[in-house]
Amino acid sequence: MSKSKVDGSCQVFHPDCRGQGDQSYHQRVLDRSWPFLAGLSLWFCLLKPHLFLPFGIALLVWIVVTRNYKILAGVASSIAISSAITFFLDPSAWAQYGQMMSSRRPDLLSIQCLSIVLRNYMGHIVWTQYLPVALGCVWAIAYFRKHRDDWDWMAHGSLLMLVSVLVAPYSWLMDQAAYLTRSRGLIATLALASAAVEVGIFRGSPLLHSAFYLWTSPAWLAWYLYAIRGTSTRMPTTLPCSLVAHT
To answer: What are the extents of the domains in the chain?
Structure first.
């Protein structure tokens, strides 16, 4: 496979940057100067932390190994600031949120994703729903350990993201936008699927809960693995710029 084809295929899973040059620039800036700001940017991942569990485990291990604790300081600061703003706007917001989450647990809804399908198949045993993500976290640690000496978020982060969403304890179709925003073909596929969901709402058909969409997340992982076949682990695979931070 030619280098141009490899680069083009791998940018399929690259959300924000407008090219490999721009991404390298952002990486250099975060690598050398702004780990605290990189930690602040992880606030966006905390909006849906269940989608990033294996990725987060690998990131945490990497932070400890490299002693890049400024990233953790950035994460803690973002949580403190957003929590303070929330409390200032509505002091009862946290109590109301707790009541909502206890009365309508999203992890127990009928969402068509692999983890919940496994739970239903195993006789609605709740802990089985968390088995894939537990195995995914173990795999993430082993994956980091295997590549520890040459670890590069640009080369290894995309696979972590794909696996994290695949094994999430629950995830909606729209959550896959976490990594599918580079390829026009993938954007079109996700847009058409989302459009079908919206049309279904008007027709009284709950397509959002349809098992038809089970194929999407495994398909993106398979597409990625196909795109990088035969290449080395040091190839410039991609990750959201805001999440890349090295010492």
So the answer is: 3-33+50-66+106-243
